Fold this sequence. Notes:
This protein is an alpha/beta fold. Helices cover 40% and strands 18% of the residues. β1 and β2 (17-24) form a beta hairpin.
Amino acid sequence: MPPTRLPRKQRLQLRARTIEYVLSGNAAPALLLFSGAGVPLDGWGRLYPGLERIARTLAWNRPGVGRSSGPHEPQSGAVVVEAVRALAESLGVGPPYVLVGHSLGGLHAQLFARRYSEDVAGVVLVESLHLDDRGLVRGHEGRLAAVLGRMLALPPAQVRGSLRDELAGLDATAAQVQAAGPFPAVPLAVITGGTDPPHWLVPRRALRSKRVHQKELARLSPLGLQVVARRSGHFPQWTQPQLVLDAIRSVVGQARAAAAA
């Protein structure tokens, strides 16, 4: 697993389940972090302590990931969004929020921003899924689990279980995003990995579509900007953490300027 400087992990009993999280920092607007499928909050470790110097930051493990208890229901985007809203409220972390989502977590952040636009001051999407990229993650769960297991120093069986649970809700999540309101006109940074993934994961034709879709994500907001992490693949927060921190700092700065105005 990448070197991590995370604050002490804590656990909270919430709605008959236990949620593992870290909370640190003080400045507003607060950052809410949405991890990729099967990836624990440790995946943000290389961004600390930079994140907490920018703003109050809440990172958490969805049900079935890390030491959070297992899921009681399919993990659609709506379930994830309501869970993090309940967690933030219980911890006294109020809006406005800047949402930071990686991969599948980017789709969750998009749903949050559409459903609760009045609570969102900005969004950062890190190698986020686009609605039309769902096919990229299907049929490769076993290989993905093996790769993530090596990267995260976790048993592949454990990663495979959380991947299965989270990807099972992918179609429902996509439908929820499509049915939600418009994406808000807030500061938006879309961070795209500049190095090509292996061909077994993303064929060349699909890779061309993915690149187009990343540009489309940046156009979700009139204040959107795409940032290409040229030395990174699917995990810029691991390979180019300073670039990701700079993008988050920029979005937070724009949000603060808008609030002051």
